[in-house]
């Protein structure tokens, strides 16, 4: 599907209207010629920015500088790709930069850092940007270790006021902090949510809680702007990432596989998009606020940026990106799009030959800056047909359901009251279920599984009332002196199955349904198999390769508890 700028369409229609039917072809040819000329002028190659940080990126308001962050923060010139500044953190805990934003006047740069080790603090940092486009006078606004009352995830987000004088950030214990940018002095804090942004007029805050609740708050006190009874909610999501549209009218919140676009004024959901196994990497609004771009990190390592209409949730198109694409940003004038990637190709033949001789893999972080109009013009209409996964044709997985419907029992609480308890450190028990996971050999050869688990590696619930807590890391291997590994051989047509009675993956990461309705369950099983299927990229040893096998979506009905 090719995108044509709205102004070009209007111009073409206007010419037809004024000149009459006899000049329609002339007007059409002229518009096409102008479009081709503009494309050629805009297609001048932009620099590939090497030695950048591919974790997070941000454009300066004038579009001349791009900041990138991961372990360090770098500034590059957009036109030439030249490195202007590189700032190494001195926290000495392997912190990772998770969010970057320039102030509206371009004189400040703020960053949110994730702590490097268990117990190490998260940071909010502020720099001044000099006229020479360097960073100096770094201030640590917040250094906060994890607490007992923290939610299991942190929404890394920082926002400036429209006049660039104030900065706001949230925290995993639902505290909102405000600072003065000229001095770094804290102006106040209050319990209101996991992240916040300033309203367009700068007079109030839009605060977002962990379950997707949106409320306007007074800057000085944290009191509600409008204290009124909220209507019963029908849309819930456990927020792991948030993005505000530039005009402040829309909000996008997501967990790992589901995205919800909300109307900020009413709090109602405009659209809910389930990605069914394709992990969400980054969510960004275009500068006009009309389009939402989502970086997809698929389980078989292909990369896509999917573009959605922010007012309806309908998908426009897909833009294919190299593997390991993780970050995304748009210049404020809407002209450029930049995304970060980890490049596996050395920059020249000599280095490539040297690394091959040493049997080493090159890995370099870099940024690609591209003309947004050309990206949209070359993007393809989304089809999202089933893609080949490693192990497809070898093993197939399914979930078998043993009952017609499941109860939505919240222990006498409303959905809003129940969602308040989720992620509070004392999570309520998830719904009781009775399902069977079945793994079947669909090939014509024997398949051997190495030390198979009797638990699911990943399980997600999709639906308007679904809340998916993030998974905790857990150790699956055994150390020296532990029990020997087990091997399970499946002949053609043989199967391996186990039952599960709780809606969760591993030992934590509960999933909940908060409202009656239709839901979808999808699960993944992680195992090591031999013979190794094509596309499996993690080596266990010479014989076995690790693969993820996803089940087909299972639809279930959840009814109100009697």
Give structural attributes.
about 550 residues; mainly beta; Methylamine Dehydrogenase, Chain H; Immunoglobulin-like; eight-stranded mixed sheet; four-stranded antiparallel sheet; 5 helices; globular
Textual characterization of the structure:
The protein is mainly beta and 562 residues long. It folds into three domains: 6-40; 45-378, 7 Propeller (Methylamine Dehydrogenase, Chain H); 395-475 and 484-560, Immunoglobulin-like (Sandwich). Strands 29, 31, 32, 34, 38, 39, 40 and 41 form an eight-stranded mixed beta sheet that branches. It has a four-stranded antiparallel beta sheet with strand order 1-27-26-25. The chain has a four-stranded antiparallel beta sheet with strand order 2-3-4-5, with no helix packed on it. A hairpin with a 5-residue loop joins strand 6 and strand 7. The longest helix has 19 residues, at 24-42.
CATH superfamily of the largest domain: YVTN repeat-like/Quinoprotein amine dehydrogenase
Number of strands: 41
Please tally the helical runs, counting DSSP H or I stretches of 4 or more residues: 5
The largest sheet, given as strand count, sense and whether it forms a barrel, is: 8 strands, mixed
CATH topology of the largest domain: Methylamine Dehydrogenase, Chain H
CATH class of the largest domain: Mainly Beta
Q: What is the chains' assembly state?
A: single chain
Number of domains: 3
Q: What's the rounded overall pLDDT mean?
A: 80
Low-confidence stretches: 1-24, 35-44, 473-482
* Spatial separation of the terminal alpha carbons: 49 Å
Using only C-alpha atoms, the radius of gyration works out to: 25 Å
State the secondary-structure class. Answer: mainly beta
Taken from the alpha-carbon principal axes, the silhouette is: globular
The second-level CATH architecture of the largest domain is 7 Propeller
Helix content: 10-25%
